[in-house]
Design a protein that fits this description.
212 residues, alpha+beta, nine-stranded antiparallel beta sheet
């Protein structure tokens, strides 16, 4: 297998500045909706987030976007996880959406703020009971002796809470990503891609084209 020869040219479309909305949140909402409607995959809301630990080591993982508005982007996780420990030390975060069948990518930089208990409770109890139990069972990122042990704990708690509400674990909750930069990328022929960044300047967003 010759990896150097695996490539394709991009030619679905061109991105011009006059096509962009002045507000990056609105531009992101448009592209997200188009990705969902295109039925690209089972997870059009999947985003890769990158954090940095106390030793300066970066790590990435995929989470699901669970909300977006003018305030930012929301996702939920185990607050004892590696990502949350990173964010407690360094709240800066990078998020990336890859919609390659549409030849599009979106990159977002910013910092996180924790969501309120009310927001966490509301979303937690909107999830299927099996997902709520999964959050109760999992000590995310910690070692476990076997898959059987995990499954047994899950079944025990499913039986325990069969006829009653599942309490939200205090270590489970969400973050709001407050963006300080958006980049929209549209693939172009001959590797001459269209790239635009939005940066806040004086209370509004400045748009700048970047070279590919």
């Amino acid at each position: 297998m010759d990896l150097e020869q695996i490539r394709r040219d991009y030619g679905l479309g061109q991105l011009l500045q006059e096509q962009l909305k002045q507000n990056p949140h609105q531009q992101f909402e448009l592209w997200l909706q188009q990705a969902i409607e295109a039925e690209l995959s089972a997870d059009p809301t999947a985003m890769t987030i990158a954090t940095v630990d106390g030793g300066g080591c970066a790590s990435q993982r995929v989470v699901l976007l669970k909300g977006h508005d003018e305030n930012g982007l929301r996702f939920y996780t185990n607050k004892n996880s590696n990502k949350s420990r990173d964010l407690a030390l360094n709240p800066h975060i990078s998020a990336h959406f890859s919609w390659l069948p549409l030849e599009r990518q979106v990159h977002i930089q910013g910092h996180v703020e924790p969501l309120s208990d009310e927001q966490n409770d509301r979303y937690f109890h909107s999830r299927p009971k099996s997902s709520q139990i999964g959050a109760l069972v999992s000590q995310q990122s910690q070692p476990i002796d076997s898959r059987d042990s995990l499954d047994q704990q899950f079944e025990q708690l499913m039986e325990q809470y069969k006829d009653q509400p599942v309490p939200r674990p205090q270590h489970w909750g969400g973050y709001l990503i407050k963006p300080s930069l958006f980049e929209f990328w549209q693939g172009g022929r001959n590797r001459l891609h269209d790239r635009f960044i939005y940066k806040p300047v004086g209370g509004s967003w400045q748009i700048q084209r970047l070279q590919p």
